[in-house]
Structure formats: structure tokens, C-alpha cells
Design brief:
Layout (H helix, E strand, L loop, with lengths): L1 E5 L9 H15 L3 E5 L6 E4 L2 E7 L3 H11 L3 E4 L4 H13 L4 E3 L4 H6 L6 H13 L3 E4 L2 H9 L5 E3 L23 E5 L8 H5 L6 E5 L5 H7 L4 E2 L5 H9 L3 E4 L8 H8 L4 E3 L5 H4 L6 E3 L3 H8 L4 H8 L4 H19 L15
Parallel strand pairs: 1-2, 1-5, 5-6, 6-7, 7-8, 9-10, 9-12, 10-11, 12-13, 13-14
Antiparallel strand pairs: 3-4
Amino acid sequence: MRVLVATDAWHPQVNGVVRTLTSLAASARGLGVAIDFLTPEGFPTVPVPTYPHLRLAVPGMRRIARLIEQQQPDAIHIATEGPIGFAVQRYCRRRGLAFTTSYTTRFPEYISARVPIPKSLSYAVLRRFHAAAAATMVSTPSLLAELKQRKFSNLVMWTRGVDTELFRPDRASDLGLPRPVFLTAGRIAVEKNLDAFLALDLPGSKVVVGDGPQETELRRRFPHAKFIGLQEGPALAASIAAADVFVFPSKTDTFGLVQLEALACGVPVAAYPVTGPRDVIADHPVGVLSEDLRAACLGALHISREACRAFALTRSWENSARQFIGHMSRVAARQRSPQSSLALGAATSR
């Protein structure tokens, strides 16, 4: 089977969506499924006002159609609700092609943190976007329940995995900082709630890995914290493995893939009891969830690093890929038309 994934998030961006899609493609290949990507590459772009280091594609419909028809996919998945995602959704709906989507980012919360747009309006737009899909994949049970309450339909589970060969305890570097080391990693932006972590009264050192629009402000406000910049691959794994506790202060992430990456490095997690941490950590002895983030950080110091690693070893990307492929196979089999390799079926449910 050949699957085309349309995404606005792609390299050189470093985030959970890009890492998820890259890992998905690698694992699916081993299962005999080819995943191709329709990305912003080759399209003109414009800067994102609140993220000057990011740019959004401006896709032309003719080129979108040509790229899809060149690929001749058996199934189409739309990973993001950006310009690429909307263009591919429009293409599919015009031609009566079935497609799936995934809900990976809390855009309503992100937008309302920056501009006075009601979350209810943003959710209405997203609900309409995903309603056209044969299935909308979500990463956790609590997110699925939340979206059901918001009247989203056709929801199915697609869990995440972790590369336990890349993220492992023996990669730990020497950060040269007083211990214990409390570390967080990700985009440095207001929706990540990093100031809640950096303002804590904690022993040892606080470390931030990543970059983003709030970096200058947080560096100024918290001069004693160590900001070590954007890292990927082995460098990121080495920094995470060097920590004593991984702190995940976000209250807006739908999953938080970096939590699994920390656990694979043998590093316990401290977080708020919200969607994402509540699903990843749950009642497993690999982290502490509390509305008192300081108490969670201090409590996590006493968790077994071996238990964290053992837990992560059960969360493979292969299992995640099998789940994704299962959803795509069912849609393709049900909707496939003998007249065209692209004709995946009649109009999708509304």
C-alpha cells in the first residue's frame, strides 16, 4: 500500500509532529507500506507573525493536484490543519476522495494565547475541517474524550512511540552543572508554560533545550537558568539523558512525545495532570503528576531510572505504525474505486 501524508510541519522544523511522521515512515517501510509526503517544499512561503523563524507555505491548487496525481496513493492522510492541509482537503472533497486526518496541535489554545480570538470560534473551524474525514486520529484516550465533548466525530486512536536506540541512558553527556539537573526541551513559546518551571524554587540547575519566540524574554527574566539552544538527534538524546528529572510544564500539548524520549533515556517526568502527561504517565511509576509542579519535580527525584527505561521499551514506533496502517487500510479497502487508483470512494461523512 502507498500512503500520501500531507503536512505543513516538516524539516527543518524540530517538533513532535515532524519526529512522529519521520518515525512513522521508517517503521511503515519495514512493514511493507510506502509513505510519501506532500510538504511545504517547493511552494512559496510567508513568515508566521508570532514565529519569525517559521514560514507557512502558500500552495497553489494546480500544483497540489499534480503532486497528488503523480504519487497515485492508495490512501491520503492530512496531518496538519495548515495551508497544505486545507488545500489537500479541498482537493479530496472536490473529487469525492476519502481521506483521514490527525489532531495533533491545540491551535485554539495557541491562538487565544496571542490574539483575542475566542477558542470556541477556532474549535468550530477545526471541527468543520475534521468532519469531512473518514477518520480523525488522536494520540490519547483523554484527548479523544475531550474532542467528543466538543462534538468532533469519527475519532480513532493512533498512539505514539519512541526510538529507544537513539534515546537511551548511556548517551548521557556531562552538562557540567550542579545537580540535581531539572531539564525541559521543546519550543520556547508562551503556550509551553515554561515560566511555570523556571520560576520554581528548586535545588541544583534548570536547563532549557530548544529555541522559539519567548527565548529572549525568558533568558532575561531567569538569568540563572541554562539555555543550551536547539538540539536534535544524538545531541538532544545526550542532553536529556544527563538530566535527573525531565520537567514538562505544558498544559496545551495533545501528547508530548518528548516525555517518552525522556523515559527512554531513563529520566523520570514531572508534569501537571493534564492531557498528554495524564495519558503517557498515568499511574505508572515513571513520573509524578501534580498541580504543584515543584512537588512533582522533587518527587520525581526518587523514581527508578531503570523503571523509566523499561516502560519506554514497551512503546515502539512499530506498534504505532501498525495502528496507523490499520486505519488507512480500512479506509482504502472500503472506499477504493476500480476506475482510478486515486478514487478512494464516495464523498466522506460530514
